[in-house]
């Protein structure tokens, strides 16, 4: 008896539906994800068991590098359409810059900082900044590539917001000027968040000198900003 031949079937699989699903999922995650903002230095935060999340809107974040350099990041309303975008991140950064420079110039009439509208627009697009007031004009007129190179060089003396243990608020240091300008920006939601301790977050590397961290915390307390968050990484079983 002859062998019965089994009819071969095609192994071709139509992947059209799978491709459609993949594209839809990719689009969904891209639109709903919160992307990490660029920071001038990589910071390895200490670990803890806290699972509380730091808000991404109406927040002033203070970053302290391992070298002891201080930077500030400002985020406005999460919804750019709130109040016609009045207090989105870019408008509020411009307002804070105006207030901070104005106070600095009053305190230092012989070393006034002169900024143009183009400088203010450039500042509004910077997520995290950290240069002395005197270096602001030069820094803001650089290309973004050059700004990134400058602010990531921790060996430069013109990188990092100057800070000390000043207690005399009639002669505030530059860090205190910035924090007061942020508090009085005019955004009631940001001010309310700062009062509750939800609007200020301090992020430091686990190897950052304690003296610099102490200066930051002490300055906040001098400004009566006694409630703030310390950003940490979630502790693992290995820790």
Automatic annotation (TrEMBL):
<dbReference type="GO" id="GO:0015031">
    <property type="term" value="P:protein transport"/>
</dbReference>
<keyword id="KW-0472">Membrane</keyword>
<dbReference type="Pfam" id="PF02472">
    <property type="entry name" value="ExbD"/>
</dbReference>
<dbReference type="InterPro" id="IPR003400">
    <property type="entry name" value="ExbD"/>
</dbReference>
<comment type="similarity">
    <text>Belongs to the ExbD/TolR family.</text>
</comment>
<keyword id="KW-0812">Transmembrane</keyword>
<keyword id="KW-0653">Protein transport</keyword>
<keyword id="KW-1003">Cell membrane</keyword>
<keyword id="KW-0813">Transport</keyword>
<dbReference type="GO" id="GO:0022857">
    <property type="term" value="F:transmembrane transporter activity"/>
</dbReference>
<dbReference type="GO" id="GO:0005886">
    <property type="term" value="C:plasma membrane"/>
</dbReference>
<protein>
    <submittedName>
        <fullName>Biopolymer transporter ExbD</fullName>
    </submittedName>
</protein>
<keyword id="KW-1133">Transmembrane helix</keyword>
